[in-house]
Design goal:
alpha/beta; Rossmann fold; 8 helices; 5 strands; globular; binds adenosine-5'-diphosphate; binds thymidine-5'-diphosphate
Length: 214
C-alpha cells in the first residue's frame, strides 16, 4: 500500500495553473509506479458532465444560489461514489482538479450563500468524502488573468467575482479561513515556472526528495 495521501485535490483561481500541475503530478507519480486517475469538477460522470454544462454554460437556465451549490454537490457525490471510491479501494491514487474547497470559496465566500450555510451543506452531504490533501495553487490575480484565455464561464464573468475568489483562496492559504474539520490544506507559489511548482507539489505529496518504495 502506498504511503502518503492518495486522494489529492488542486484548488485555486481559474487560470492559475491547476490543470497543468494535475498533469505534472500524474506523470511524476506514474514514474514512481503508482496507478493514477484524474478527475475534474464538476464533471467526470455522465451526470457530472450534464451538470457542468448547466452550471458553466447554460446561461438561459436561471439558477438560484442554493440550487447552484446543490448541483455542484450532486455532481460530486456521483463522482465520488462511481469513480473515486472504487479507484481508492483498488489502490489507485486519485487527483482531482478542484473539489469541495472550490464550493466553499466560490459559493460560500465569494458567492451569495455565505460561509456558514455552505459549510453545513458540505459537511452534511459529503461527510468524510473529502481529499487527504488539498493543494492551493496561488499567484497574483493579474498573473492568473494573463494565463486565463478564451471565453469566461458563468462564474468568471460575474462582476468583481474573480477578485473575491482570489482573496478567498489567499485567506484559505494563509489559514485566516479554515477548511472543514480534518482538511489538510497546503499551498504552492505558482508565480514561478511550471517546473519549480511541480517540484514543490511532488514534495508535498511524496515528502521532500522522497524515494518511494513500491
Ligand atoms: P487552470 O487549470 O488553473 O485554469 P491551466 O493549468 O489550464 O490553469 O493553465 C492556464 C494557462 O497557463 C495554460 O495555458 C498553461 O499552459 C499556462 N500555465 C500554467 N502554469 C504556468 C506557469 N507556471 N507559468 C506560465 N504559464 C503557465
Ligand atoms: P473549470 O473550467 O473546470 O475551471 P478552471 O477555469 O479553473 O479550469 O471551471 C469550473 C468553474 O466552476 C470555475 O469557474 C469554478 C467554478 N466552481 C464553483 O463555482 N464551485 C465548485 O464547487 C466548483 C468545483 C467549481
Amino acid at each position: 500500500m502506498t504511503a502518503g495521501p492518495r486522494f489529492i485535490a488542486f484548488e485555486g483561481v481559474d487560470g492559475v495553473g491547476k490543470s497543468t500541475q494535475v498533469a505534472r503530478l500524474t506523470e511524476a507519480l506514474q514514474r514512481r509506479g503508482r496507478t493514477v486517475i484524474t478527475v475534474r469538477e464538476p464533471g467526470g460522470t455522465s451526470l457530472g458532465e450534464a451538470v457542468r454544462e448547466i452550471l458553466l454554460n447554460a446561461r438561459e437556465i436561471e439558477l438560484r444560489a442554493e440550487s447552484e451549490a446543490l448541483l455542484f454537490l450532486a455532481s460530486r457525490v456521483q463522482l465520488f461514489e462511481t469513480v473515486i471510491r472504487p479507484a481508492l479501494e483498488a489502490g489507485s491514487t486519485v487527483i482531482s482538479d478542484r473539489f469541495h474547497l472550490s464550493t466553499l470559496i466560490y459559493q460560500g465566500i465569494a458567492g451569495q450563500l455565505g460561509d456558514a450555510h455552505v459549510r453545513s451543506l458540505l459537511r452534511g452531504v459529503l461527510g468524510e468524502r473529502r481529499p487527504d490533501l488539498n493543494i492551493i495553487v496561488r499567484a497574483p490575480l493579474d498573473v492568473c488573468r494573463e494565463r486565463l484565455s478564451g471565453s469566461l464561464d458563468r462564474f468568471e464573468s460575474r462582476d468583481g467575482f474573480l477578485e473575491r475568489v482570489h482573496e478567498g483562496f489567499e485567506r484559505l492559504a494563509a489559514r485566516e479561513i479554515l477548511g472543514l474539520p480534518g482538511d489538510r490544506i497546503e499551498s504552492v507559489d505558482a508565480s514561478r515556472s511550471i517546473e519549480a511548482i511541480a517540484v514543490d507539489v511532488e514534495s508535498l505529496v511524496c515528502g521532500p526528495a522522497a524515494e518511494e518504495k513500491s
